[in-house]
Every structure is written in C-alpha cells, then in structure tokens.
Design a protein that fits this description.
With 742 residues, the chain is an alpha+beta fold. The protein is built from twelve helices and 39 strands. A hairpin with a 5-residue loop joins strand 33 and strand 34. 53% of the residues are buried. The structure holds (2R,3S,4R,5S)-2-(hydroxymethyl)piperidine-3,4,5-triol (DGJ).
C-alpha cells in the first residue's frame, strides 16, 4: 500500500494490490478525480485522463482559458454554481446570501494509520502499518473556509475510507447546507445501481436498476437510517455477478438521515454522492468552528459481489466493531418478547429461563415492559427503574436469580424515547423534540427525547448506569421504535435548528460511547423496530443488531440475504420463533427456522415450555450443534450461492473456515414441486485438493469436484430436492478428511 505524490504534475496515487485511486490538482487549484478502479501501474503523469473539450452551451470559468469548465471534469468534491451543474458535494451559504464556493488546493499531509473522527463512529487501525491516510487541504480564498478531504487506503482489499471537515477560518458566520462525506465522479454510466430497501418486517430487499441519465437516489429523512432504505448502495457493471466482474460498494458509517445518490449527466458521466441528507440540514459554522462529516467507505472489486461483501464483512467485523465481543462467538440467547409481550410476571420469566437453561441456552433477555408504569405501549418509557409490582427485588434481584440458575442476564432499553405518561415527561415536558405552539405527532404513543441536549443524555445515562452498576447485566438490547417528526430543539436558537437531526445522532453516539466505555464487557445489540437502524454507525458500538422483527424463516431468507451484501453474519440478530409465525402466520418446520437462524447470532424468541417434548429435544440438538459450529457460522467466509430474489426463491449460502477445512452449506426451499428437476450447487472457496466428507450421505469428494461438478442436492429417494416439503431446508456439513477425527 502506498500514497504517491508527484510534485511536478501535482498528482496523488493511492494504491495497494487491489485498487488505484488517482486524483490531481487542476491548473486553477480545484481537485479532479482521474481514476478509481483496479490497480494500475504508477506513472509520473496521468493528466491525459482529463478531457478538456469544447461543448456548445457549456459555461467556462475563464475567458482566456477556452476549455476550462468544471461541468465535464470529474471532481473530487464538486460544488455547484461555477460551471458544474451537477448536484454538489457541499453547499455553503454566506452572510451576503451567496452560495458560491471555490475550494482550491493548498497542501497535503500523508500519515501512517488512520486518525479517529471526533464524536463519530469510523473504521480504525490497530497498527499504523494497516493503512495510510492522505489529507488534502483546500481553501476558499474569498471566505476563509478550509476544507480537509481525508482518504484512508487500507493495506488489503479495495477499500478507501473518506470524509471531509470544514473549518471556518474567516471572519463571518457561514452555513453549511450540504456537506457530503463522499463525491465520486466516474467517467461512464455503464452500471447498475443496487440498493437495499423495504419497510418494517421486510428490510433490505435487494433492488437493481439500470443507471440512466438523470438522478436516482435512496435516502432517509426519518432521523434514523430506516427500514425503508439502507445507507449502502452498489454500482455494478451489468455483466458482474456474485463471482466475477466489477462492482463498487458505497457504505456510510452513520445512523441518521442519509442520501445515496447517483447522477448521470447527459454526457454519461456518473456522480455518486453519499452523506448526511441535505434535506433540513443547515449547520452554522461560526469563526473558529469545525464540522466533520461522517465517514464513507468505498470497496472496489473486480471479483464479483461476493468478494465485495467479504471485504466489507472483514473490515466491519475487525476494524469497525470494537471491544470485548467483536471477535467472540456470541451467546445463544432466549428473548421473552414474542413469548409474553407485556404480559409477564417474574415467575413466568423464571419458567421461561429455567426451561431454556435445561435446553442449553446461555443468556436470558428480558425485553420491553419491566420498568416504570410500562404494562402497555402508552406508559413508562423514560422511567428506567424496575416496576416493583413486577420485579420485587428489582433488576438486581432478577438478574441474580437468572445467574443463579446458570444463565447470563440481558435487558432491553429504549433510551431515546419517552411516553407522556411517565415521571420523566411530567418533570421535563420540554425535553422532547417539538415545535413551540404546534402539536407533536407520536409513533407508538411515544415521543423522541431531545438527544441534542447534553443534560438529556446525562439523565438517561445516569439511570442506565445505575442499573448496570448494581445488577449483573451482561447484554443490552437498545431499541428505537419510531421515526422523528417536528424536529426542533428548545435548546437551540433559530439559526441552528437545521443541526438538530445530526446533533440528535451525535447524542446517541455519545450515550453509546459512555456506556460501552464504562461497561466494556456488556454485549450491546442495536435494534430499531427490528432493522430500522441496521447500519455501520451502530456496528461501531454494538457488534450485533436485531435484523428484523419478522422472525418467519422464509421471510428471513430475503432479509438476511440482502443484509449480507454489506454486513457480516456475526452482526445479524436471528432467532427461532413459534409457528404460526407472529408476523406472517406461516408454519415452517422447526429445523428450517434454526437452519436460517444459524447464519446469524442465533437465539430463541418463544417459550420453550410450550413446545412438545420432541420439539424440546430437537431444540437441545440445535443448541448443541450451534455451540459446536458458531465460530464457523459467525466468523467464517460467507458466500451467497442462490438468491431468494430470483427464480423460484430457493436460497443457498455457505460459510467456509479460514483454513478451508470446514464448510456448512444451507439450502432452503420455498414451495415444493412435484417431480422436481435434478439440482446441484457449485460450492465456492474450498481447497481443490482437500477431500471433504459430506454429512448428508457420508461420501467424500475433492474440493475441485464440489466447486466444478457441484454438490448434488437432489434427494435420491424422493426424486425431489433435499428439501422435500414446503419451506423445508437442509444443511450440508463438509469437512476435510484429515479433520474427521475432530
Ligand atoms: C421492537 C423490537 O424490534 C422488538 O424486538 C421488541 O423489542 C419490541 N420493540 C418491544 O417493544
């Protein structure tokens, strides 16, 4: 990995074995993008890649410099209004009302490793040799605004992490009305735009559109990254597949409002913008103040989508997630939500926990309803003290009882919310986000606390800290169950109201930072009505997230498959629940529910007492199995083999251990058919020379056979595929022969 600078041509070349990123200072000081893609040889001069050419009806910057227009030159961080007509990376409003900016190259800095972003989650290095960071310093000569563009190249993989910082070094207040984390101009539009969209209960369904002239975008203006769209998009070449071809993944390490946009000009240049959504964003920068954008991570590959995903998985697992749990296999948990909802007593919780313990579960999680007056959705949020009528000895007592039967104890919070029927709201009605003299909308009868205010975050911290200090709590599920409306803070002046959405998220990060620092061994799982904040920002604090409230196995195939394009298996909260399923009322076999949930953190969301004895025995076997293989599931290399978004919905995926000696393949059927065709799966990532034994038929096959001739998944006795009824599934465990004795 290196960052090369050619002084004569003022060209920067960031490269490692996988990728090259080249940019140059234009004659008049703007920064131009020259190349981003597969690694190419370094050359002293790449200036021929700039195409200055005359086009009618184009605006030019200088009368004496005929072809100097920014409209057709790929910009590093484009601004609107001075010949570039594309949506810009930044927009600054000056005191005199002007919106023109002109950032010119001033200097640069190259450093080993990667600096942190103050107050924001970001990828990091553990050793300076893992990455290098280039900081480009640009200045606007008119208003004294300094712009720093940060680029980190990691030693391995086609990864470039970017962000920007604005420093007001001038004499006047400025307003940033747009400050994207990344602007990337590519010279053609021969791409498909892939995004992951949905709604509550069907998060991150993969959507692919052909890139066309004009603007295509996804985003969130709901105050959280949302169920609806994820801050992750892919540009892929039309011929790229899971296993070959070029793709670039763009991921924003942020949990609030975001915009991911592709704009194709009518000359077929493509601009990608990724960052905080400019809608309602207006950040006042007084002289001496700095604004730092969140980080955006780009991953380039020429080896297909699986390879891109694997690069993200490894980066996010090892250099975004932090702390005690990031590399550890996750405890198998039982959560009482779908078992009881609000209707529980301590005795009932203990019954659920005791049965779970006898089946091999390791962690009991008490979900919503244990605090204040919370016996239904309309009361209690904000009062983080145990309800003495329910839990006479408080959380401390219950946690101890759970520990005494040999389980760890976990607890649900929804720190950012308040019900009007709560002591907190009665004491501080002005602590919610609300506009003076206007009514406030609710979501699930709850209101959003103004986390842009430190005193609000302090108060919630104190309540949570007290519980965690007094009780043996090993795990926290941090929920967030509504989108923001009437976004206004009573604590900020009129000209800073455009900062509230972002300041809110900074408050959330602050609380996470304080709690995870004070309680480093507590495992945090993020949640937002299922997966409404399943984003890299929260992965920095919570190494796992509740993927979706939809626990139906068939639905989960799509959700987990879509999620896997960016996020590792170790981050996906996945539980076995009852049938009929509570979200779609479907019956699926118990083994299929587990076969899906194994490809995640694994747990149960039911009362095991209510299962038949046979089912309980099956659960015991499942837990035993997961304990044996959870490291492989959660930290092996994950491959998508067959997409639930295509064909008949049959899904297949697999994980391979680092030494390639073990692999588990999951095959899942939706509807069965009569007299089905023969079927086989072409496995990936095996050692061609290892001979693998197949757990299903006991036969052994070389890795090259399994990858090229395929693994036969047709059932020999039924003439059907291995999954032989609706929603059936099968796991194939393949072990390299010399490992059979283990
Ligand atoms: C939404 C979560 O996604 C559920 O798992 C559960 O915790 C409920 N909230 C509790 O209110």
């Amino acid at each position: 990995m290196s960052i090369l600078f050619n002084e004569k041509t003022r060209t920067f070349h960031l490269c490692n074995d996988s990728v090259s990123y080249i940019m140059t200072v234009l004659p008049r000081g703007q920064m131009a993008q020259l190349y981003f893609g597969r690694k190419i040889h370094h050359s002293e001069d790449f200036s021929h890649l700039l195409e200055f050419s005359f086009r009618p009806m184009t605006s030019y910057l200088y009368e004496n410099d005929g072809d100097y227009t920014l409209e057709h030159i790929s910009q590093e961080y484009g601004v609107f209004g001075s010949t570039d007509y594309r949506d810009p990376a930044a927009e600054i409003i000056h005191k005199n009302g002007s919106r023109i900016s002109d950032f010119r190259y001033d200097s640069f800095l190259i450093q080993k490793g990667k600096p942190c972003l103050p107050g924001l989650p970001a990828t990091y290095t553990e050793d300076d040799s893992e990455a290098q960071t280039l900081t480009l310093i640009l200045k606007d000569p008119v208003n004294g605004l300094m712009l720093k563009l940060f680029y980190t190249i990691f030693s391995e993989g086609g990864i470039i992490a970017r962000s920007a910082a604005f420093m007001n070094e001038g004499p006047e207040d400025l307003h940033l009305s747009r400050a994207m984390s990344l602007c990337m101009d590519l010279p053609d539009r021969n791409y498909e735009f892939v995004h992951f969209s949905g709604a509550w209960g069907r998060e991150r369904h993969m959507k692919t559109r052909v890139l066309e002239q004009g603007i295509q975008s996804v985003g969130s203006v709901r105050g959280h990254s949302s169920h609806n769209h994820n801050p992750f998009v892919i540009l892929k070449r039309p011929d790229a597949t899971e296993f070959q071809g070029e793709a670039i993944g763009f991921s924003l390490v942020y949990s609030g409002n975001f915009l991911a946009q592709a704009e194709v000009s009518t000359h077929d240049e493509t601009r990608i913008l990724l960052g905080i959504h400019p809608h309602w964003f207006d950040w006042k920068l007084e002289p001496g103040e700095t604004f730092q954008t969140p980080e955006a991570v780009m991953v380039y590959t020429d080896k297909g989508l699986n390879h891109m995903s694997q690069t993200f998985h490894k980066l996010y697992q090892t250099r975004l997630a932090r702390g005690y749990w990031k590399d550890k296999a996750r405890p198998i948990l039982i959560n009482n939500w779908e078992a009881t909802y609000f209707d529980f007593t301590e005795e009932r919780l203990m019954e659920i926990a005791s049965k779970a313990k006898s089946c091999g579960v390791e962690l009991f999680v008490l979900d919503d309803g244990w605090f204040g007056g919370r016996r239904h959705e309309k009361a209690g949020l904000g009062d983080w003290v145990a309800n003495p009528g329910l839990l006479p000895e408080g959380i401390t007592g219950l946690a101890q009882k759970i520990e005494d039967i040999g389980l760890k104890f976990g607890l649900w919070f929804e720190p950012e919310m308040v019900n009007k029927d709560s002591d907190l709201y009665r004491k501080h009605p002005d602590w919610i986000l609300k506009v003076p003299d206007r009514s406030s909308s609710h979501g699930r009868f709850q209101y959003v606390l103004d986390f842009s205010r430190t005193e609000v975050v302090d108060c919630i911290y104190e309540m949570m800290e007290k519980i965690l200090s007094e009780a043996k709590v090993s795990y926290i599920k941090w929920d967030m169950n509504r989108s923001i409306t009437e976004c206004y803070s009573a604590a900020l002046p009129a000209d800073r109201q455009g900062e509230v959405f972002h300041r809110y998220i900074l408050g959330v990060y602050d609380l996470y930072e304080r709690l995870t620092s004070k309680f480093p061994k507590v495992l945090f799982e993020s949640c937002a009505s299922g997966g409404a904040r399943f984003d890299p920002g929260l992965l920095y604090y919570a190494p796992q997230g509740w993927t979706s409230d939809d626990t139906d196995a068939a639905e989960r195939l799509k959700i987990q498959y879509g999620t896997s394009y960016c996020y590792p298996v170790s981050s996906m909260g996945s539980h076995v629940s009852v049938t009929p399923n509570h979200q779609v009322f479907r019956y699926t076999p118990l083994h299929t529910r587990a076969n899906v949930a194994y490809f995640g953190t694994f747990g149960y969301e039911l009362d095991l007492n209510k299962l038949t004895e046979d089912e309980q025995e099956e659960v015991k076997e499942q837990i035993k199995f997961m304990k044996q293989y959870r490291r492989l599931f959660q930290f092996g290399t994950f491959y998508r083999l067959k997409s639930p978004f295509e064909g008949d919905g049959t899904t297949a995926w697999m994980v391979v251990s680092d030494d390639k000696k073990e692999t588990i393949v999951g095959v899942y059927k939706i509807l069965n058919g009569a007299n089905m065709p023969f079927s086989r799966l072409f496995l990936k990532g095996l050692n061609p020379d290892f001979r693998y034994s197949n757990s299903v038929d006991g036969r052994t096959h070389y890795g090259d056979e399994l990858m090229n001739a395929g693994l036969i998944t047709t059932s020999i006795n039924a003439g059907q595929e291995i999954p032989v009824c609706d929603f059936d599934s099968g796991l194939f465990i393949l072990k390299a022969e010399n490992e059979l004795s283990i």
